[in-house]
Specification:
Belongs to the PEP-utilizing enzyme family. By secondary structure, the chain is α/β, with parallel strands linked by helices. It contains 35 helices and 31 strands. The protein binds phosphoenolpyruvate and magnesium ion.
Length: 869
């Protein structure tokens, strides 16, 4: 028989798929003997079943819930129904397998009604009891009926103003008046607050199940690659009250600093408050160290439990606690979200502390965290002259400049127009997620390091500053006042997520030098990784960046990128437009000189590392001018008429340039270009060999579809290379000629090609284009429709399509290995640097991946992770 509900003393930490992260950890903590309030977890399977067949709730689940509540009553010796003096009140919280902070719903104090609140008031105090009831009414309305929270806030603010005191000082009658107003809000929405606790519980559980599919949860899942078919568990837990009195409180604490990784408790608490108060950022919490002074016994107990939990889970924990009349309860523990910087430091420290192995450490840091570490900071010189407006808490590092916006909607609108925006709000809430995703940075005036803005931004790697108390933000007037400065929507500000400072200038950004910790960490990755990582680069700057980031070599130097300089393009144009041999030779001579200089510097920069130079690939008309004035200018330089030039350009136009006269076709129709390139490569290599370097040129031919194409080109290149050695009176040194595999046909004849090629490199950009028949330059126009209509869940130009393109790659590799089991085979299309694609490449027998220099560090980690897992 299926089991739909587990008591906290039944599950374990490994049951995350069934009990959700929160439920599994509550169960684990119960087993560890920690003071966890009793409760039970309704499984993720129940959620999925209910979402699919709602009648399941009435026919099966309801009975099970009632049984679980009865057990909870006997465990706690309290009563959920009736009006006994010992009231059982519960919280109802979502909890998915993978934590999605704030994305789904929670209801506290459930079980109160008009009568029971009076009992609670009689047994505790009126202020506490009515505040609990008021909060329940508001949360229930929001979660179950979707009535906006603000409507209740408005009543509260109005009553507080009228009575000229805060809600915590209301008399019983004043509370009752306010609660009456809350009920009127319900009526305005044609709803009622159910007085029966069981009815409340059923409605709350259904609403939490449904919150799995609310828009913000869906967006969060897409962003974090969390599957949509997991469902959420629901935790029903007996309430403990941090808002009981001045010896009560609630807090959220990380066992290490989630921003820097430093090893000390980091977090906040509020005396006389309920959990949501800390996260909502409405009252400003105190740092956890202050608890030592206020409630020393609870503080000591907390430190002890924090240590137990960290050692048990062998990772930094994010712990929620409540103190009820000096007694400490642990309400939740989970692996703490952290910045990229903290993630690296914690992984290294845990190895140092002998808590985890190097391999485990490598799995603890995500490749995207590595990307954040190598991302921009403000240029120091520009920063010196910038005007610092104010400083808040540095919640998530990074540096960004952009236009101020005050709402998530506006952020989305301006982002769609290509603008860079900074979202500035008093505090963010989960509804803001879509606006946060598109913002360069997020700034809030309220809230601390565990506020919604801080946690979410950190998770997304977005620069964020919270708690800028000096900013008076008016979201309706769309203005910020800070001392004497007034800023409006659209004004530029710069945000430093590392220092917490805001500036009123636009400030240029730069990269941090590779720090020692990152180098050490990635050196562990290199020791373990099966695949190596090369870079796609052809400028000296890019080559240097690639080496600095630890590329093992250059997997693809696209030579067409070397012809676009002003002088070079003129000679290239002369070559393309030449009418006789003399003109051709003169243009080639000049291009040869340019290319010699290029290759000389490139070989010098790359030193003893491998470098694959790919011969020219793009269609010729890409080098020619497009508009009239450019045509006129070029015609003058070439001393021909504009009409003649226009005709020539028209004659070179192609209907489908991607399928046309490009790649090795150019080498076949204009062999002199490839010969010139090879001559430049060998002239410079020979010169450097004479100067004492060891060089083994690797030349790659693009877009091969036929074995005879490769044979023909290889024959004239080899012959030409022989003549170059002779010209230089040089004993030939080894070199290699390989081919790209970027057409489906090349995959099918890979055995024939492997006989002729010294290496293969998969050009997955073209291979994907040619397999799907999707133009790589136009996919942006329709991919979103494909995703929305669930035809495809990802863009195959970003992540390898294992089923189609991947299958072709497997065929090619298997055929090639039949001929030459040691043939080096790389991947140099965009997906080469995609961490999600790398495990597949390792499995099918790829030798190395090659990607743009900035993707190299993350790819180095991803290849190690692929080996470990
Ligand atoms: C490819 O097609 O994947 C490739 C690397 O070549 P290019 O992007 O230059 O066509
Ligand atoms: Mg290509």
């Amino acid at each position: 028989m299926d089991k739909w509900i587990y008591s906290f003393n039944e599950g374990r930490a490994d049951d995350k798929a069934l009990l959700g992260g929160k439920g599994a950890n509550l169960a684990e903590m119960t087993h560890l003997g920690l003071p966890v309030p009793e409760g039970f977890t309704i499984t993720t399977q129940s959620c999925l079943r209910y979402l699919e067949t709602p009648s399941f709730f009435e026919s099966i689940l309801k009975k099970e819930i009632l049984k679980a509540i009865t057990t909870l009553e006997s465990q706690t010796n309290k009563f959920f129904m009736g009006n006994e003096s010992s009231l059982l009140l519960v919280s109802v919280r979502s909890g998915a397998k993978i934590s999605m902070p704030g994305m789904m719903d929670t209801i506290l104090n459930l079980g109160l009604n008009d009568l029971r609140v009076q009992t609670l008031a009689d047994t505790t105090n009126a202020n506490f009891a009515y505040n609990c009831y008021r909060r329940l009414l508001q949360m229930f309305a929001d979660v179950v009926y979707g009535i906006p929270k603000e409507e209740f806030d408005r009543c509260l603010v109005k009553t507080e103003k009228q009575l000229n005191k805060t809600v915590n000082n209301f008399s019983k009658e004043e509370h009752q008046t306010l609660i009456q107003q809350y009920k009127e809000v319900y009526q305005e929405h044609y709803q009622n607050f159910p007085q029966n606790p069981k009815e409340q519980l059923h409605a709350a559980i259904k609403a939490v199940f449904k919150s799995w599919n609310n828009p913000r949860a869906k967006v969060y899942r897409e962003l974090n690659h969390i599957p949509h078919n997991l469902g959420t568990a629901v935790n029903v837990q007996s309430m403990v009250f941090g808002n009981s009195d001045q010896n009560s409180g609630t807090g959220v604490v990380f066992t290490r600093n989630p921003a820097t990784g430093e090893h000390h408790l980091f977090g906040e608490f509020l005396i006389n408050a309920q959990g949501e108060d800390v996260v909502a950022g409405i009252r400003t919490p105190e740092p956890i160290d202050a608890l030592k002074r206020i409630l020393p016994q609870a503080y000591d107990n907390f430190c002890n439990y924090a240590k137990i939990l960290e050692q048990h889970y062998k990772d930094m924990q994010d712990i929620e606690f409540t103190i009820e009349k000096e007694k400490l309860y642990i309400l939740q523990t989970r692996t703490g979200k952290r910045t990229a910087k903290a993630s690296l430091k914690i992984a290294l420290d845990l190895v140092d502390e002998k808590m985890i192995s190097k391999e485990e450490a490598l799995l603890r840091v995500s490749p995207s965290a590595i990307n954040q570490l190598i991302h921009p900071v403000f240029e120091e010189s520009a920063l010196k002259s910038a005007h610092c407006l104010t400083q808040g808490l540095p919640a998530s590092p990074g540096a960004a400049t952009g236009e101020i916006v005050f709402t998530a909607e506006r952020a989305k609108e301006l982002h769609a127009l290509g603008k860079k925006v900074i979202l500035v709000r008093q505090e963010t809430s989960p509804e803001d997620i879509e606006g946060m995703v598109v913002s360069q940075a997020i700034v809030t005036s309220h809230g601390g390091m565990t506020s919604h803005a801080a946690v979410v931004a950190r998770g997304m790697g977005t620069c964020c500053v919270v708690g800028c108390g000096e900013l008076s933000i008016n979201e309706y007037d769309k203005t910020i006042v800070c001392a004497n400065t007034i800023l409006k929507e659209g004004d530029i500000i710069s945000v430093d997520g590392t220092s917490g400072k805001l500036y009123t200038d636009s400030i240029s950004t730069t990269m941090i030098d590779n720090n020692d910790e990152l180098q050490l960490f990635l050196s562990w990755a290199d020791e373990i990784a099966q695949l190596s990582v090369r870079a796609n680069a052809e400028t000296i700057q890019d080559l240097k960046t690639a080496i600095q980031f630890g590329a093992k070599g250059i997997g693809l130097a696209r030579t067409e990128h070397m012809f676009f300089g002003e002088k070079r393009i003129l000679e290239m144009r002369r070559l393309i437009l030449s009418n006789d041999e003399a003109e051709t030779n003169s243009a080639l001579k000049k291009l040869l000189a340019f290319q010699e200089e290029d290759f000389y510097q490139m070989f010098q920069t790359i030193q003893n590392k491998a470098m694959i130079v790919r011969l020219l690939d793009p269609p010729m008309h890409e080098f020619l001018p497009k508009n009239k004035s450019e045509i006129k200018q070029l015609a003058e330089k070439l001393q021909i008429s504009a009409e003649t030039l226009t005709q020539k350009i028209a004659s070179l136009q192609e209907t489908n340039p991607m399928l046309g006269h490009r790649g090795c076709r150019l080498g076949i129709t204009q062999p002199e270009i490839y010969k010139m390139q090879v001559e430049a490569i060998f002239n410079s290599a020979i010169q450097l060999v004479k100067e004492g370097m060891v060089i083994k040129p690797e030349i790659m031919i693009p877009l091969i579809a036929e074995k005879s194409e490769l044979l023909l080109i290889k024959a004239f290149l080899c012959q030409h290379i022989d003549s170059i050695f002779k010209k230089h009176h040089m004993q030939p040194f080894p070199y290699e000629i390989g081919t790209m595999i970027e057409l489906p046909r090349a995959c099918f004849i890979a055995d024939q090609l492997a006989k002729e090629a010294d290496f293969f490199s998969f050009g997955t950009n073209d291979l994907t284009q040619m397999t799907y028949g999707f133009s790589r330059d136009d996919i942006g126009k329709f991919i979103q429709h494909y995703k929305d209509k669930e035809i495809m869940s990802f863009d195959p130009f970003q992540t390898i399509d294992q089923t189609g393109v991947g299958e072709l790659m497997k065929i090619a590799i298997s055929k090639a290995h039949q001929v030459n089991p040691n043939l080096p085979i790389g991947v140099c299309g965009e997906v080469g640097g995609d961490p999600a694609s790398i495990p597949f490449f390792q499995n099918i027998g790829i030798t190395y991946v090659s990607c743009s220099p900035y993707r190299v560090p993350a790819a180095r980690l991803a290849v190690a992770q692929a080996t470990i897992s």
